[in-house]
Amino acid sequence: MTDRVVVSRAALHFWEEPPISGSSGSGTVFFSGCPLRCVYCQNADIAYARSGLEVSVERLAAIMSELEGQGALNINCVTATSFIPQVKRAVSLARSAGMRLPIVWNTSSYETVESVSRLDGTVDVWLADLKYAHRDVAQRYSRAADYPDAAAAAIDRMLELSGEPCYDEYRGQTRLVRGVCIRHLLLPGNLEDSKRVVDIVAKRYGDRVLLSLMNQYTPVLVSAARSGDKQAQAVLSDCPELARRVTDAEYEELLDYADARGLDGYFWQDGEAAQESFVPAWDYTGVLKPSDEL
C-alpha cells in the first residue's frame, strides 16, 4: 500500500461480539490491504486491495464522526495496519471535532510490536485474531510460518497497553471501552490446532482477555473455483478440507475443550453463521462524501 488511505466500506456492523456491536452496531471502517495472505480469506477483494477508494486523512476523520452520528458504539478499524500514521492523525482530528467513541483495532495480529506501540493513546480496544498455534498450519494457510510467535508478541503488547477488559453503559448497552478480545476461527479439519490456541490463551492470558471462538468459516473458494478462478482451484487442490464448513461436532468439541480449560465466559456462535451473505458488499457505502453520493 502507499501513503494514500484506501477504504472499501464504512457502515454500522452488527455481527461483532455483543459488547462491540451491541444493538446499535459498530462503526466499522474496512480498509484495503492486509499483511496476511490467508488462502481462504472471505474478504479477499479488500485484503488484496482489489477494491477500495482513496480518501484523505480529513475525509477519514469525517467518516468517523458520521458513524458516531449514526449511533455507532465505537469506531472499528478493520485491517488498518498499512495506514497507522494516517489513522492516528484521523482519530486525532475526529476527537478534536468532538468525536468521543472508543477506537477498536480489528486485526489479524500479524503486527510488529513496534506498530502496536505506535497506537498507544489512539486505540482503546484490540479485537485481535489468534489464527494458529503451529508454524506448519500458519504456513499452510497464510504463508506465514512466523505467525504464531509474531501474533503472541503483538497481543502481549496490546494487553500491556489496554489492561484488563473495562466496560461502560452507552445508550442502554454494555460497551467494551478498554481491553483485548482474542478471536479464533475454527477451520475444517484443524480441531487440534484450535485446541492448542485455547491452551495458549488459557496459559498465557487467562481471564485478563476476552475470548471469542468462531465457527463461521465460509467456503467461498468453492463458488470461486466453479466460476473458473484458477487460484481458488489451486488452493482447493492443495487444501481440499477448505471446501466444506466446520461441522457441529467439531465446534462443540472445541467449546467443550475451552470449558475443560476453565475458560468460561467466552463468546461463541449459535445458529448458521457460515453464509456467504454475511460477507459485506464492497460498494463504498459511507466512503464518499454525502455531497458526492447525491
Set down the secondary structure blueprint.
Layout (H helix, E strand, L loop, with lengths): L4 E9 L4 H4 L4 E6 L12 H4 L5 E3 L1 H13 L5 E4 L5 H13 L6 E5 L5 H6 L6 E5 L5 H8 L4 H16 L3 E5 L2 E13 L5 H15 L4 E5 L5 H7 L3 H9 L9 H13 L6 E2 L21 H4 L1
Parallel strand pairs: 2-4, 4-5, 5-6, 6-8, 8-9, 9-10
Antiparallel strand pairs: 1-2, 1-3, 7-8
What does this entry look like structurally?
With 294 residues, this protein is an alpha/beta fold. The protein contains 12 helices and 10 strands. The chain has helices spanning 18-21, 44-47, 57-69, 84-96, 113-118, 135-142, 147-162, 191-205, 220-226, 230-238, 248-260, 290-293, and strands at 5-13, 26-31, 53-55, 75-78, 103-107, 125-129, 166-170, 173-185, 210-214, 267-268. Strands 1, 2, 3, 4, 5, 6, 7, 8, 9 and 10 form a 10-stranded mixed sheet that branches. Strand 4, helix 4 (84-96) and strand 5 (103-107) form a beta-alpha-beta unit. Helix 3 (57-69) packs across helix 4. The longest helix has 16 residues, at 147-162. It is globular and about 50 Å long.
Give the structure's gist in a few sentences.
With 294 residues, the protein is an alpha/beta fold. Helices cover 38% and strands 19% of the residues. The protein is built from twelve helices and ten strands.
Tell me which oligomeric state these chains represent.
single chain
How much of the sequence lies in strands comes to 15-25%
Enumerate how many helices there are, as a single number.
12
| Low-confidence region ranges | none
Structural class determined from secondary elements: alpha/beta
What's the helical proportion of residues? 25-40%
Number of distinct beta strands: 10
String of helices and strands: EHEHEHEHEHEHHEEHEHHHEH
Give average pLDDT, whole number: 95
Q: What is the radius of gyration? A: 18 Å
Span between termini: 29 Å
